[in-house]
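User: Please fill in residues for this 120-position structure.
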């Protein structure tokens, strides 16, 4: 008995978690979200570092605010540690996604595209 693979449904037994992580779209989404998290950190870090131009009092006020941010809900410096952990996880996920997508790309096309010269 011959089965037509084009018309027969293909069943894949896969967990939702692994299906998402194994797909290239899922990896690209992870890379986008983690990149957005790192970009947000970069912008906020730049904003904090620009306080140096506002004088020592503004910088000291900002440093004191960083130690007590989220004070009613979190303890001293706890929110900062949460941000550090989230940033570290985002960095690891971003690097992992880039590495696996690059490996997947090289496996799909081991020979690169022909270089074209600029016709200027």
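Assistant: Residues filled in for all 120 positions:
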């Amino acid at each position: 008995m011959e089965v037509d693979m084009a018309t027969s449904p293909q069943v894949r037994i896969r967990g939702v978690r692994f299906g998402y992580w194994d797909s290239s779209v899922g990896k690209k989404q992870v890379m986008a979200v983690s990149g957005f998290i790192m970009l947000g950190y970069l912008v906020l870090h730049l904003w904090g570092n620009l306080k140096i131009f506002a004088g020592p009092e503004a910088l000291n006020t900002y440093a004191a605010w960083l130690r007590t941010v989220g004070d009613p809900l979190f303890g001293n410096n706890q929110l900062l540690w949460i941000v550090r952990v989230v940033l570290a996880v985002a960095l690891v996920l971003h690097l992992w996604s880039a590495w696996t997508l690059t490996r997947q790309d090289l496996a799909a096309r081991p020979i690169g595209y022909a270089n074209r010269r600029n016709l200027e």
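For context: The chain is about 65% helix and 0% strand.
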